[in-house]
């Protein structure tokens, strides 16, 4: 159950069948979700979306662009929403294609309500993990932006495994100056060890 002060996740229902949209909306509203219905993939792609998180229920045969094309559009967004594909003609090849397109699940109509709600819970859990990851990445980049150009050079050489004296020679500065820059890098990046700084660098490169 969601607390009273917590925003409801939004489930975007993209299906050209009005009866399906209405039935899914009733089910999801009763389960405590906010529902946004769309009759085409284009309507969904063009609709403004606030920072509220959620997931997408997407019919694979949705008119223009096709359902399988929409994940490519969503992938261009900074924090794409997880997708559950819906179809009236389920088969193995479509399931495989849906999973390769990034689907959380692939459900065949008529859809069992409990199976759908379980799939939505899985999608929302994945979304929370993704959102946390994006927030961490944004914070790391903000920390990196506080480094001076020289500190960024030192950062790059430190995570490359260079010793202070090697960095000093490469950047033509005194070793004590390198140590001072290195200390600033550790402080600004909030790293307590070289291993943690390397991990931060790896995260920012993902």
How are the SSEs placed, and which strands pair?
Layout: E1 10-14, H1 18-30, E2 34-38, H2 41-46, E3 54-59, H3 70-74, E4 83-87, H4 92-100, E5 103-108, H5 113-145, H6 149-159, H7 164-171, H8 175-188, H9 194-205
Parallel strand pairs: 1-2, 1-3, 3-4, 4-5
Helix pairs in contact: 6-8, 7-8
Structure described in brief:
The chain has 206 residues and is an alpha/beta fold. The protein has helices at residues 18-30, 41-46, 70-74, 92-100, 113-145, 149-159, 164-171, 175-188, 194-205; strands at 10-14, 34-38, 54-59, 83-87, 103-108.
Describe the structure.
The protein contains nine helices and five strands, in the order E-H-E-H-E-H-E-H-E-H-H-H-H-H. With about 210 residues, the chain is α/β, with parallel strands linked by helices. It folds into two domains: about 120 residues, 3-Layer(aba) Sandwich (Rossmann fold), CATH 3.40.50.2300; about 60 residues, Winged helix-like DNA-binding domain superfamily/Winged helix DNA-binding domain (Arc Repressor Mutant, subunit A). A five-stranded parallel sheet has the order 2-1-3-4-5, with helices on both faces. The protein is elongated. It starts with 9 loop residues before the first strand and ends with a helix. The relative contact order is 0.09.
């Amino acid at each position: 159950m969601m607390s009273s002060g917590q925003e409801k996740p939004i489930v975007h229902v993209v299906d050209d069948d009005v009866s399906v949209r209405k039935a899914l909306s009733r089910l999801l509203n009763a389960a405590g979700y906010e529902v946004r219905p769309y009759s085409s993939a284009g309507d969904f792609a063009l609709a403004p979306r606030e920072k509220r998180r959620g997931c997408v229920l997407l019919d694979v045969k949705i008119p223009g662009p096709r359902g399988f094309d929409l994940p490519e559009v969503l992938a261009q967004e900074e924090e794409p929403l997880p997708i559950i594909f819906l179809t009236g003609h389920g088969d193995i090849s479509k399931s495989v294609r849906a999973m390769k397109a990034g689907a959380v699940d692939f459900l065949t109509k008529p859809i069992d309500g409990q199976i759908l709600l379980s799939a939505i819970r899985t999608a929302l859990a994945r979304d929370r993990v993704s959102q946390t990851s994006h927030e961490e990445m944004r914070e790391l980049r903000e920390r990196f932006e506080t480094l001076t150009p020289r500190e960024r050079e030192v950062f790059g050489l430190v995570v490359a495994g260079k010793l202070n004296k090697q960095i000093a020679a490469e950047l033509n500065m005194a070793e004590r100056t390198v140590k001072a820059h290195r200390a600033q890098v550790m402080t600004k990046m909030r790293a307590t060890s070289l291993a943690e700084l390397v991990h931060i660098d790896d995260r920012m490169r993902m």
